[in-house]
Amino acid sequence: MSQVIDGVLKDWGERIFYPQVKGRIGKRSITRSAVSHSPKQTGVTGSARIREKLSLASRNAPEVMVKISGGGKGMRQIKTHLDYISRNGLVDLENEDGQLITGREAVRDLRDEWKYGQYGIPEEAQHKEAFNIVLSMPPGTDRTSVNDAARAFAATEFSSNHAYVFAAHDDERHPHVHLCVKSLGFDGTRLNPRKADLQRWRESFSEALRQRGIEANATPRTARGAIRGPVKQTILHKQQREAPEIEAKNQPVKNQLQDSFTVTKKALHAYGKIARALSSGDAADRQLALDITQFVAKMPVLQFLKAKSRTLDRENKLADTRSSLSHSDLADKSR
Hints:
By secondary structure, this protein is of the alpha+beta class. The protein is built from ten helices and six strands, in the order H-H-E-H-E-E-H-E-H-E-E-H-H-H-H-H. The protein has helices spanning about 1-15, 45-60, 75-85, 105-115, 145-155, 195-210, 235-240, 245-280, 285-295, 300-335, and strands at about 65-70, 95, 100, 130-135, 165-170, 175-180. Helix 1 (about 1-15) crosses helix 2 (about 45-60). The chain is elongated and about 80 Å long.
């Protein structure tokens, strides 16, 4: 029975937490070699990984945030970002070798090292020569643990092939780290992150946090049953009046929202399959099945579907009432 449950967990859990993403061919680098993609496996694999993610999700563990906030097209923009994350030399930067870069003069030396070292970076460029990445957690999370996890994440993902620096900012409620990574690697391949890479980065960062005793999860929006609300009609009409061609631009967005909604409903189906399988297991599995059921019941998408169903019921009843009244009027007139 345990093997059957593990098989269900792996099969349906992969559909929830690791939906397929269409691949894209990367651009060729300065050495004419294709962009390299080498996904790194997390510490927990297979059904054990799915159990852990289900347990974290059902407990509403904090979700990590990893996003690309921009990138420098040339050294001029990179310097501006380095000055920003170092607060003009007041905040220490740390590089891939663990060396601290302290003060404005040291930041200038770093800029010159990136500008003139190895392949070099021009002042102005047509493509991103560095990626700006932000890693953060909700307010109240231990800042030292977040910084240590960010350091471990950067070392795992980039230190073997990319130069980078990072800085922790403590002037906002949510602890976060700014990471600036050179896009051109030591081997000449260029960093070209896609949606799948971002999800892998979230997984890596959340695992680094858990290894430091911080409960953290990294799930897609669809796995949490999150949905985006519809755009108000007044806003749509205003947009169309100001720029009629905006409707054509918005069409792909509408399609994406519909696709996301479809994937979310498939995730609900997968949760049901997993909960039914776990309910036939031992006490721990049965408890997890109950936790999953309660978690799904509170999902925004389920609340939305229930509200939509109630609205349709009311509209159908109103239509039936109007139809009945119309028939009554016709009967009265025929008399």
